[in-house]
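Supplementary Methods S3. Complex input for the DGJ-bound model.
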Amino acid sequence: MTKKLFTLAGLCSLVLSAVAQTLSVQTPRTTLLLSATQGEKAKIIYYGSRLEGSDLETAARVELTQDAYPVYGMNCPVEAALSVQHPDGNCSLDLVVENATQREGAGCTITTIELKDKLYPFHVSLVYKAWQDADVIEMWSEISHQEKKPVRLVQYASAYLPVRRGQVWVSHLSGSWANEGQLTQEPLTPGMLVIKNKDGVRNSHTDHAEIMLSLDGQPQENSGRTIGAALCYGGNFKLRLETHDDEFHHLFAGINEDNSAYLLEKGETFVTPALALTFSAEGLSGSSRNFHRWARSHKLANADVERKILLNSWEGVYFDINQEGMEQMMSDIASMGGELFVMDDGWFGGKYKRKTDNAALGDWVVDEEKLPKGIQGLIDAAHQRGIKFGIWIEPEMANTTSELFEKHPDWVIQAPGRDLVLGRGGTQVVLDLANPAVQDFIFQIVDDLMTNYPAIDYIKWDANMAIMNHGSHYLPAQKQSHLHIAYHRGFEQICQRIRAKYPKLTIQACASGGGRANYGILPYFDEFWVSDNTDALQRVYMQWGTSYFFPAIAMASHISAAPNHQTSRVIPLKYRIDVAMSGRLGMEIQPKNMTDQEKELCRKAIAQYKQIRPIVQQGNIYRLLSPYDKQGAASLMYVSDSKDRAVFYWWKTEQFVNQHLARIPMSGLDPDKRYRITELNRIDPEALPFEGATFTGAYLMSNGLDLPYAHKLPYHYDYASRVLLIEEVK
Ligand code: DGJ
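Predicted complex, serialized as structure tokens:
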């Protein structure tokens, strides 16, 4: 049988009806090859660096193939992407290709393979969306049927990818509250690695829904073939990596179906969340750059807008909000050059006041005892000081001690007939976002704030509880198992309504710290809070891991007090600044407790951050020395697209005297350009020997610079760190 090869070049939309065909899904530097022959199973032939010309045809002929979407029930002793039970009890599927199309979308090509069961009117479309300006292919499935009664979806992965066995390592993030984004790197071995989440509301405190696969042995930051995979879903997820007795590791990614069997009605289409895949031959950092570019171009809200430097009130005053205190903090951040003040938790409550965490969630009215001039008074105070104003809300939640709960006890998630399981403060509950009335209520919280106070510039959207009991007063009995899915559909609908009306509003996704670092929510949020832990040393590790998948512009990183409120560690202010400056810089501290000297250091740092902000927030990351390698230091850099400017960061991670630390070659520069070095946030009386000197990119990339292990100060000082600005000299 002759095979035809289709690529989309020059074609607007193409229905592929030839008997046997190979579909080539291309991004600038990657190729996914699929086979879709009518009446046969759809196959994945190849995923990797971009193939051209005869290689495409030869690969299609000789490569080992795998089912593009393995299903359960026929010849299926291994893991499957899809498993269902038909209304007659039959638990099997046998899907073959019915049709395939390729068409151009906005900035992307969309390839769809339509599959149909041989026996039942049951359909699955496999969709592959290839971005033309970013090396990312999104893959998902759309499941539907015309059977007489609902079909029970037991397992329903978004996508599947076979990865050729060899020296394949996986890098993944896990952790817990205040310790998010911890990196684990391990070889794939026989058996199954399951990376999953069951929180119900948040999904990145513990396991993350993203992984990297290093195909050439132990992961390297700047070399080796690397596949990155990110499930774009804010709810419960499951990634399975199965290795059994064949030539491949098998990656399945999708919604976590545990406790979430789904009854699919006749005519309804179940659209699974996308799995975003990237490939780079430039190591982990290469795949990160691909994800970051894609995030900035297509995923993250307002990614082309520079993020403001802010002071958040939380660690400064916690619940102790009052007009005078807020104004003092505004004055302080304004005097240091900040651009925004965010009032955190504690500002609201009518009948029940938000004095601590056990009351008033749901009652989004100003506590006039604390804030007699109301929100407008705060906005005016901010504007008088030349800065913007932002506010904290936690709209998906209530306390049982709230007027909202008294009025709508049926709006909360609760196992039918059982006592509530209570969260934070002993009174917190989660609202049932499956319920459209609740969705309206939550939309209204934001809409009311923004209608009454259109000058609000920033919302911090928090979520401090998991779904801890299973049950919806809204869903019918036979669809109680839809709760987790319905919650996230409701959440997305609310977010879509908010974004339709307030596209430019800056919204931070916070969820007890870093519980919402995920591509499912990023289209609606401008950034996320990486962690409630602001300890700079621990942040080096957390931010390192998080940067595998998310760009610095999205990673909120704040200078906080010493001793640190989470770890009690005393870290010098310079180091705290240098770490915070590698993400979206902010402050989370009581400035009135800072000395004038400390304020001056922050003022200078903020001014310097403004200079490097475009490089940090829009540049390309090159991670150089991993803190997880335990070499005593960590280092990374951001390089502008045109390679004319870069910022280099170096932080000591082990505090020993006279350690012998490695010199770190730089990366990502233009070997032929000449660059001048300027130290930022300098505290040493004496400049570094290379201050103001120029070097070729080639020199810097093969040698790096010799950084002193310590600062030359008249007193003992651990925690050395350096930030270097690297600028082209023409
Ligand atoms: C948890 C968040 O992560 C913190 O930053 C803070 O906003 C508190 N909630 C407020 O209750």
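The first strand starts at residue 4 and ends at 6. Residues 623-728 form a domain with the Immunoglobulin-like fold (CATH 2.60.40.1180).
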